[in-house]
Amino acid sequence: DAKTTQPNSMESNEEEPVHLPCNHSTISGTDYIHWYRQLPSQGPEYVIHGLTSNVNNRMASLAIAEDRKSSTLILHRATLRDAAVYYCILRDRPGGSEKLVFGKGTKLTVNP
Amino acid sequence: KAGVTQTPRYLIKTRGQQVTLSCSPISGHRSVSWYQQTPGQGLQFLFEYFSETQRNKGNFPGRFSGRQFSNSRSEMNVSTLELGDSALYLCASSRSQETQYFGPGTRLLVL
């Protein structure tokens, strides 16, 4: 399974942008980059995913490096509700496994 | 649309007992995956079922087993419980090859 590397923790202030980095130097050509987050006392929830191009949705933006060896999840205006552990995961598809390989993730603290 | 539901939410067992956990996927989702989450090991994949067949399995001993019914509901069973099996057990459902949606989990404590 291709591995990802994330900082253990990051801190942000409310209403400021947050950039969460992820390194995946061994990514293969068919790996999609997925981000999930886990709020306290909840199961993980999907945030965003992409292959090569930058992606935006109502929750966040995903910026993917040109060589695809790294990516950054961007929360444009952090709120207290965004305090969670963020996981960057590589997932092979189509025809790939449903299995998600979670690393340790980045624990994001949002200060009021 | 109702989300993934798991029952029970909390469970206390003693060593040597066995336990069965249940997961009801989102309507229309045929894939159900199970994960174990502990402070030491993090989130680890247990197995995945699709159309009543186990399609993928993680590195867990045979004491951990599961099954899926024709309505896509799934159960996982752990026999001969050990203290180290204390964990949050998470179930996720998806239409195959798409986003996985996780339930709130069952927190198991083995005494």
Task: List the defining traits of the structure above.
heterodimer; A: 112 residues; mainly beta; five-stranded mixed sheet; four-stranded antiparallel sheet; 0% helix; B: 111 residues; seven-stranded mixed sheet; 11 strands; 54% strand; globular
Describe the structure.
The complex is a heterodimer of chains A (112) and B (111). By secondary structure, chain A is mostly beta strands. Helices cover 0% and strands 46% of the residues of chain A. Chain A is built from no helices and 9 strands. In chain A, the strands form 2 sheets. Chain A has a 5-stranded mixed β-sheet, with no helix packed on it. Chain A has a 4-stranded antiparallel β-sheet with strand order 2-7-6-5, with no helix packed on it. In chain A, a hairpin with a 6-residue loop joins β3 (31-38) and β4. Chain A is globular, with a radius of gyration of 13 Å. Chain A starts with 8 loop residues before the first strand and ends with a strand. The mean pLDDT of chain A is 91. In chain B, β4 (31-38) and β5 (42-50) form a beta hairpin. Chain B starts with a strand and ends with a strand. Chain B has 111 residues and is mainly β. In chain B, strands 2, 4, 5, 6, 9, 10 and 11 form a 7-stranded mixed β-sheet that branches. A 4-stranded antiparallel β-sheet of chain B has the order 1-3-8-7, with no helix packed on it. The chains are: A mainly beta (112), B mainly beta (111).
Report the β-strand fraction of chain B as a percent range.
Answer: over 45%
- Rg of chain B, please? 13 Å
What oligomeric arrangement do these chains adopt? heterodimer
Q: Beta-strand percentage of chain A?
A: over 45%
Average of per-residue pLDDT values of chain B: 94
Average pLDDT, all residues of chain A: 91
SSE topology string of chain A = EEEEEEEEE
Largest interface here, residues on each chain?
A-B, 20 and 25 residues
Q: Strand sequence of the main sheet of chain A, in spatial order?
A: 1-9-8-3-4
Number of helices of chain B: 0
* Cα distance spanning the termini of chain A: 38 Å
